[in-house]
Amino acid sequence: MAGPLEVGKAIEDVGEAEVDVGRGRVDAELDPERPAELQLLLEAVARKDVDGLRDSTVDAHEGRYTTPVLALFRRNGRRPKRRRIRKLRLLALLAVLGVLGVASFTFGLLTAVAAQIPQLDPSKQRVSQANTYVYAANGRTVLAILRGSQARIIVPSEDISPWMKHAIVAAEDKRFYEHRGVDVRGMARALWADVSNRGVVQGGSTITQQFVKNAYLTSQKSVGRKLFEAALAWQLEQRWKKDQILTAYLNTVYFGNGAYGVEQASRIYFHHPAKTMRPAEAALLAGIPEDPSLWDPVAHPKIAKARRNLVLRQLYRQHYITLSQYGDGKDDPMPDPREVTLPSTQGQAAPYFANYVKDQLVRQYGPRRTFGGGLRVKTTLDVDLQKAAHEAIASALPPTVGPTAALVALDAKTGAVLAMVGGENYHKNQFNLATQGERQPGSSFKPFVLATALKEGISPSSILNSQKEVTINADGRLWQVNNYEGEALGPINLAQAIAYSDNSVFSQLTAIVGPRNVRDTAKDLGIQTPLRGYFAIGLGAEPATPLDMARAYTAFADGGDRIDGSIFGNTPRAVDCLTDATGTCTEENRPVHRSFLTPAQAETVDQLLQGVVRYGTGRAAAIPGWQVAGKTGTTENFGDAWFVGYTPQIVAAVWVGYPDKLIPMTTEFHGDSVAGGTYPALIWKAFMEKAIALKHFTPESFPYPPSQYAAPVYVVNRGGLLMRDNGTCKNSYQLAFYGGVGPSHVATCKPNEVVVPDVVGNRLADAKARLDAQPLATTLIYRPARPGEQLGVVVNQFPREGTASAYDKITLVLPKSLHGAIPKVVGLSVARAQEKLARLALDVDVQGPSDGRVVKQSLEPGTAAGPGLRLILSAKP
């Protein structure tokens, strides 16, 4: 044992440089705290045939061989291969466990999903349905009972027209017969849209997935919901045939207007079973499910017809119908709104309002939960005020007169819809004039122009010239505006202009603030009908509904705030809350105030609209002892008449006209024309007086706007932006601005400024004539022409738009052929034509006798030639 002890002694003399335990570079076997194991290892090595090692170790100078020996032992003790094997084993074990976990989860998910499939059968869902009750604000009066079983009739596949099946596939899922419940390409597009829109899920659902959602799930939009839909759809496709899925989908999908399922939809819209539908009828229904409110043929017949024709075109392109059927289908009449009969679920108190609430519920909760989902909905409707609205219309507008009226009333502080009259007889005509009647509001739209001007800092003390006729430069086009009955008041301020509803002043003001800005203000305050930013918007040429107008005016009465709902968002507050069986609110649709005007701006509008009632066009709406603000509206030819007004407590909008089409009301008001200050103002006053008495309101005053200094500033609208005049602008206006500051931007008008017209695509002579008329000069440059390109036509210009000073030069770009131009050869003999074309090295193809005359050439004379360019000559003897 002397040898090992000698070596051990030598090891003890080695410094720390060789045994760096602290940094982990030595195996555990070399740990200096474990000497017994080290000695055993050394002894085991010494017993091997290492002749001479002992002697050399003992005889050598102390410590000389210590390092190489230690290195030998360190290599023998690390066992790196064993450690790698241990890591691989661990990774393999984790992988196996992961696969088993995923497999178990997938199996459990598929088992759970498969268990839901029997519940998807529409015929088995009716057992568990519970009625949805819609109540008035008092919590007692039932406005509607929504029953899924009543609003849907389950029919087998053979009782559904093949046209309907073809149409729904063409409109909703063209690859229905190709995929297995999930369209990967469609979902990829939808997921990309989700990511790019930060979580807004849209599109990508197949008919199978939509059926799953309609029959089982809610209308919640989330990635998790789509994944579960996809899993359930995939499982369903493994068990059901395509026709069974399609039939089930058509029995559960919502077609608008209370039509839940294709059979009920066919009876409501066409008054016959689904089995006998024609292609055009099927196409109309197939276009609705994507958005039942937007494509509603009762509310939006024009765009619903366009949607129907689109589906017909898809049917033709997919070879389901012939060209003749496509043409006949486009001429097929749309359903008559007066004959669209709904299931009798509405009560008698407020059927139009109840139907409107139903549409809100469908959009928020989906058709399955709305119809037969057991909801208890407490609305905002005041039964007493609803009755007062009917009485006010009957007292001011007798049925024998001819026109009808719509009325909507809202709470000025909470935005709650208190009353709604949408027509004369709901059972004869379900078209809701209060929510679906998109008619031109006329001058009742002018307060939005005024509000836009106030947002720009323009003071009502600004003076504009009132003229019988005014011509406005509307983005290069001339817009001629006439005042009502040819009145001309001369220079007047905006307060007088709104009171007397002066068209010439408000057309100028619209041009100053910009029609697109007026549109944006109206939409911000609550107008939800599509609005185009045309110049005529300031005079009420864009459509709106009475409900939209009343809601937008609520912002004036409420200090500049639009009132939304906490559940339903940017929609009128028709639902107060969802309740339990005891009537206790469990889910409240609280008022949410969103500011779009400052209180000072809203108070200024209030003050100016009071002048309309005190001494302007709305004097018939005045209520003694009460502050009333409002605005009349009368469209051209007296086709629509409006009054929208408010007290500090209630806002109400009244429309009068013929519901079916635009008919001038030139004699209906006791032999005179019906204007906003006649029947609409009288109806409004009659309703408001009843409301004051019923609710025991006491007179309140509108807040008075703060007094602000204003000074004149010359301004001009450039590209939709209001700017200060730099001293050379044409058509500038002097307006009073709060603080005397005016817009922050200064216009870059040019001396003798003219508009640069776009002449690209015109022949050179026509382009030069158009520019000369501005007047502008021209300079020409050329670029190489492409073979086959028409010569002598302007292909570009610099500048292409904007403005320039008179007689500035506009550079026109024209193509110039490097190989000559194709000549006219029509009328020449074929031989002469070929001879004339030979120098151009064209590929000439003569169709007809070679000794005949050319009657037609495929490329027009003056086209740029090029080697090998194909030219076809048609010849006749």
Description:
With 877 residues, the protein is of the alpha+beta class. The protein has a five-stranded mixed β-sheet with strand order 2-1-3-11-12, covered by helices on one side. A five-stranded antiparallel β-sheet has the order 5-4-16-15-14, sandwiched between helices. Helix 19 packs across helix 21 and helix 19 crosses helix 22. The longest helix is centred in the first third of the chain and has 37 residues, at 80-116. It is globular. 43% of the residues are buried.
Estimate percent helicity: 25-40%
Count the strands? 27
The SS-based structural class is alpha+beta
- How do the strands of the widest beta sheet line up side by side? 2-1-3-11-12
Mind telling me the C-alpha Rg? 41 Å
Enumerate the spans where pLDDT stays under 50 for 5 or more consecutive residues: 1-73, 198-202
What composes the largest sheet?
Answer: 5 strands, mixed
Content of β-strand:
15-25%
How large is the count of helical segments?
A: 27
Overall average pLDDT = 84
Q: Label the overall shape.
A: globular
The CA-CA distance between the termini, in Å, is: 127 Å
Brief rundown of the structure:
The chain has 877 residues and is of the alpha+beta class.
In terms of topology, how is this protein built?
Elements: H1 2-12, H2 35-46, H3 53-59, H4 66-78, H5 80-116, H6 122-125, E1 132-135, E2 142-146, H7 162-172, H8 184-196, H9 207-215, H10 223-239, H11 242-252, H12 262-270, H13 279-286, H14 301-317, H15 323-330, H16 351-365, H17 367-370, E3 376-379, H18 383-396, E4 404-411, E5 417-421, H19 446-455, E6 463-466, E7 469-474, E8 477-482, E9 490-493, H20 494-499, H21 503-513, H22 515-525, H23 546-557, E10 561-565, E11 575-579, E12 585-588, E13 591-595, H24 599-615, E14 629-634, E15 640-646, E16 650-657, H25 679-695, E17 710-718, E18 721-724, E19 733-738, E20 753-755, H26 764-772, E21 777-784, E22 796-798, E23 803-805, E24 809-816, H27 830-837, E25 843-847, E26 853-857, E27 870-876
Parallel strand pairs: 1-3, 21-24, 25-27
Antiparallel strand pairs: 1-2, 3-11, 4-5, 4-16, 6-9, 7-8, 10-13, 11-12, 14-15, 15-16, 17-18, 17-19, 20-23, 22-24, 26-27
